[in-house]
């Protein structure tokens, strides 16, 4: 049994000068009888100084741009640091060459920029135990989390039970201090087993687990066989086994500092390949130093014990859990294990990374903050609030979303018109007010095909982030699991969509947001044959009185073009006649999914028919999308007048009438557009340049 003495403010005296610029080393004490979780001091760290474990995040508040003011900064300009395996090796060598004695938490200095309200994030490393696996994510995570990383020295022989007790005691201590805030635990490989074990023993604690390639599948891997043979391997020959871990742990090309997720030109690929091969040898050497024979035997023993312990207690894990699984993990069957755990854990979501290896967190294509945001797992209080806890998209995230709609924008070349205060219609968005709050009310095209081009163009041209009021299907865990890709809806959460509800609309208007609202909802987006451009709105007003309460500007708009893009082959009426469709229909509209996402069940008429269903489409030679934003309707100063239900109803009908006028105008005018067909647009661009603006009809 290992007993470790308490560390001091400068635990590694011989190396303090070299390490103090990178880390804050906490006090920690671990023994078989008494485990004292780290206690932070309130003094913020200063350059060139080591200190006890920090007591609270530094009082630097997160910059939260106001979405409703001129000059607002909508996009977050931060990005993941261009780091890779070299930085991991360098920082790991500093720690393993200096860290003697106890297991402890450390907090990288560059992470000390979070706000006072930020939650705590505990990082539990993989079998290496160093604790530097988040090196690529320090800057991004450090803005929204108070980060503590667990470091297990190479010569440490702390037992599994002692490690779990140490982590659990830290969680209990911080739970008392962080009243009302969740505690995040990011566990990688064996660290994921530790996280699950702590969660099973801390059911009354608000935990959020982020598990990266969890090692709960240990019994089904070749690691189990190696662990039984290592005792017979002489010392000089254990190094190749350690090196094997490194060779299989990841794609070295993807962990280089210059790797790009998209396709590369030959001149870009050659230096990246060279860097990957150059980094391989130091990585093999490092893992041999981190895992000498005795350490490797010890950690495989702990891994075996941890996996067995956790698998027998998965039923006790009820907290929010997000699993990140690599598709090309050569050490663990991470893809299959993630799906297995998702069926057992009641509050679990999975994100698959098909081209990634075991060292997922070191790969250049991954931004951990983006993954957490996309899954809707970032919160600072005991409940999820997608309005107050929303983190604006980064430039990189916006570029990724734009890339997804690149083909749609190319094929349809959307044209947008707006209406000035005097009623004059112009091309562009100059008629859109620059200040919020504002509510955009319009019609859905089939499958919501207008959403991507609309949101992207507003952000590019007006620097306005449209916050969509979306169907709850896009936020439901069970609904997500029906999709071919579990992350299909992540882009909507990243771009600010929230589930439809009165309270969410209230919160968005209260912070001067630009809100995108479709009264027709799923009924319009999943309309049947011959119903294009029909409005299926409720009879009674749903948004006018709320808008008037905040003096929001209502902007009616219409969009046409779906009938120039595809034909409906099979709609809901056709699908119901198919013998095999009944089971899918029940999954979508009954059971857990149907109960969670059913809307307007107490309404009458067509608007109550909100059944969710697929649609079979036949593509057409692409035409063009046309948007028209009507004259803004101001409600400021009309709050008392619009409290009257009759007056509110009259304005509601006025808005609906304006949307119908927009649709009629566009359908008539597009007939006069000489560039409605994609062929004529291609000819124009061939003669005038690919970046030239293609003309359209005169408004």
Automatic annotation (TrEMBL):
Extract the InterPro entries matched here: AB_hydrolase_1 (IPR000073), AB_hydrolase_fold (IPR029058), DAGAT (IPR007130)
Keyword Acyltransferase belongs to the record: yes
Name the Gene3D superfamilies for this protein. Answer: alpha/beta hydrolase
**CDD domains, from UniProt?**
LPLAT_MGAT-like (cd07987)
Biological processes per GO annotation: triglyceride biosynthetic process
Q: Which Pfam families match?
A: Abhydrolase_6, DAGAT
Highest taxon, organism lineage: Eukaryota
Q: Which GO terms describe its cellular component?
A: membrane
Q: Which UniProt keywords apply?
A: Acyltransferase, Transferase
GO terms assigned for molecular function: diacylglycerol O-acyltransferase activity
Q: Does the keyword Metal-binding apply?
A: no
Start and end residues of each stretch annotated as Disordered: 33-68
- The residue ranges of the AB hydrolase-1 domain are 155-365
- What protein family does this chain belong to? Belongs to the diacylglycerol acyltransferase family.
Q: What is this protein called?
A: Esterase/lipase/thioesterase family protein
Q: Which organism is it from?
A: Rhynchospora pubera
The top of its lineage is:
Eukaryota, Viridiplantae, Streptophyta, Embryophyta, Tracheophyta
